[in-house]
Amino acid sequence: MPRSSSNIKTRAWLLGGVVATLLAAGCDGRPNDPDGRVVVRYWDKWSGSEAKAMQQVVDDFNASQDRIRVEYSSVSQINRKLMLAIGGGNPPDVAGLFGNTLAVYAENNALTPLDKLAAENGVTRDDYIGVFWDICNHRGRLWGLPSAPASLALVWNKKLFREAGLDPDRPPQSIAELEEYNDKLARRDENGRLIGAGLLPSEPGWWPAIWGWWFGGDLWDGERITADSPKNIAAMEWIASYPERFGARDLLSFRDGFGNFASPQNAFFTGRVAMVLQGPWIQNFIRDFAPPDFEWGAAPFPSSGPDEEGVTLVETDVLVIPAGAKHPREAFEFIRYANTQGPMEKLCIAQCKFSPLKEHSPDFLQRHPNPQIGTFLELAKSPHARFVPPLTFWVMYENDMKQAFGKVWTGAASPREALAEVQSRLQAEFERRRARWDRVAAVLQEGWNKQP
Amino acid sequence: MTRREKENLRTGLLFISPWIAGFLFLSVYPLVATLYYSLSDYSVLSPAVFVGLENYRNLATDPIFWKSVYNTFFFAAFALPLGLLVSLTLAILLNFDLPGRGIFRTVFFLPSLMPMVCLAVLWQWMLNGDLGLINNALRPPLDAFNALFGTNLTPPNWLQEPVYAKWGIIFTALWGVGQAVVIYLAGLQDVPRHLYESAEIDGANFWKKTWHITLPMISPVIYFNLVMGLIGSFQVFAVPYVMTEGGDGPERSLLFMATYLYQNAFDYWSMGYACAIGLVLFVVILVLTILATRLSARHVHYEGN
């Protein structure tokens, strides 16, 4: 049966061919832009109203000239997706990252250094609140420009202060005073279960690694990890005082009763905690989730001594050009546009943040939806404004500190033990990563010198 | 080989080429690549640098890795036998000829249709120390006990306390045994009726029939569920990852091997190290599966033999 056998063979070839085609597919074939503009693909982590704010800036940019069209996409879990897109050789031209990930992207040769592009366009440190420019620099090069920045402050509920007999307009000035306030603000039900507290360092617990800053400690000194320095231990001892006073299990059970941050059950909005460490965005959450009569204030977080007054964490989202981007010059043109006063203020007002630029328009603070934005802005300008160490394993550092915090919070380990464990593990990791950097530094630096 | 045989072979190979391609590109290549990357310093973005056994040496002295190994074995040691026992018991009960049997079968199967993430979020609330249903049920008997004996027992904060956290995850895993129950039910319905009938004539009771007929007859199904359960429990990831919002849990009590692999690969940018963990996990599962096969060989009866 020669005919049917050849028929079978044809089908087999067809099947094999289909598979081969499927395997070969998956390369992106983008159609050219119909009106001849250069298409700049831009990924950012924002979604919802934050994305809408950036989309407006993008639309304004596209309308302001006729050579470039920026296409914005909201990309969740951007760190992982960008890592894979760059590794796969098909990255977007602009990406929005968190400033504290610049070190790891840069040292993995995943970004385009922007020094030359910035110099050509006259962008310098003087245009910015200095600390935000510094966040964007690593290993002597500029890797991105800020988009929406933030700083942290003590945010308190004035009504609860009043009910506890405290002056609603006078936040605690020192850690010692904070603890006096905590004693007055703690409430228990008839069975002795905790139902209200002043400040709990575990709520919402987003920055477990940096409490030492308000005690004069630091996380590294450039040469060594300093997780177990005496001042960091002092901060951890302050953390340990909570389970001692309130009972470890009581605290856990109290916290288990809190709802999600972005919900009306947020412990701060329901009055279960009277103070939190938060950024300027809190205004958006108060607007959406807090009771209508919610009264609040913001002030520098209290510190252990006068030398640490005005300590705050500053962080910023950054716009970067991934390595291997097809249109770096056009991409920078957009980044530059987003870093001019008008567009930047539009973005930051919509996202409820202040502008990272040194000069803001005269009515910026009045136009801003957050009545306390001036406090956050002043904190960012404070000489004690700090950002997290530019280490390629910062996520690991933060996670280990979170674990140490957890152990101290439940009384499972003493502050000294918990931090000694972090110290030994991270110092070893620090040395491994440094050895890795030494291996590749010369080649990378040479490559970066040739960038556009 | 004649010309015709050769042609047949080629045609045959072409027909299974989708599978061959899938196997080569999606199974063999990743496995070989994992082996290579596990011997290198690799972060996905920069080219891999060969470092020999360094990753494995670091693993050997990494206390957190050993903690994840301990957690994984602990979880498997309890979740696997409990899962087998619960699912087999449920299957035997659901095999009784009772009114509404179909409804019960559906009810017990339903949870396994639920996506892992929903299951995790649901149990997060069930196990909540303050508002959870489980603690709500535990509080009255504990209060009564306290009143009688003057003790001061309180229910645990399941997912916040390291001693209880793994048990929380084990209970959650038991809730999803529906899949295994269905497979057991299929096996149970295959057991020939005449075996039970002749045993009944000889005066065997329910337990004797279960021990001497049911279990040997469905032993291949038990073996299958054992191996699948083994693989599943050593790869436990999604539920604890979602429940703990990052995968560690209190004092890393819910950090499993798969979670630590994931953290290293995607959070810490240590893909080489993650590959080494992956290979260790692969070898562990392989060895245990071989052991299970060897040990159960005498007890598994295939009808064909």
How is this structure best described in words?
The complex is a heterodimer of chains A (452) and B (305). Helix content of chain A is 45%, strand content 14%. With 452 residues, chain A is an alpha/beta fold. In chain A, β8 (187-188) and β9 (194-199) form a beta hairpin. In chain B, 71% of the residues lie in helices and 1% in strands. Chain B contains 15 helices and two strands. Chain B has helices at 3-15, 17-37, 54-60, 63-94, 101-109, 116-126, 133-149, 162-175, 178-190, 193-201, 206-217, 219-234, 238-243, 257-267, 271-296; strands spanning 40-41, 49-50. A two-stranded antiparallel ribbon of chain B has the order 1-2. In chain B, β1 and β2 (49-50) form a beta hairpin. In chain B, α12 packs antiparallel against α15 and α14 (257-267) packs antiparallel against α15 (271-296). Classes of the chains: A alpha/beta (452), B mainly alpha (305). At the A-B interface, α1, α3, α10, α16 and α17 of A face α1, α2 and α14 of B.
Outline:
The complex is a heterodimer of chains A (452) and B (305). Chain A contains 17 helices and 13 strands.
Task: Return the average pLDDT of chain B rounded to an integer.
Answer: 91
CATH superfamily of the largest domain in chain A: Periplasmic binding protein-like II
The main sheet of chain A comes to: 6 strands, mixed
CATH architecture of the largest domain in chain A: 3-Layer(aba) Sandwich
How many structural domains in the coordinates of chain B? 1
Q: Say what the CATH topology of the largest domain in chain A is.
A: D-Maltodextrin-Binding Protein, domain 2
Provide the succession of SSEs of chain B: HHEEHHHHHHHHHHHHH
* CATH structural class of chain B: Mainly Alpha
Rg for CA atoms of chain A: 26 Å
Question: How would you describe the shape of chain B?
Answer: flat
Task: Bin the helical content of chain A.
Answer: 40-55%
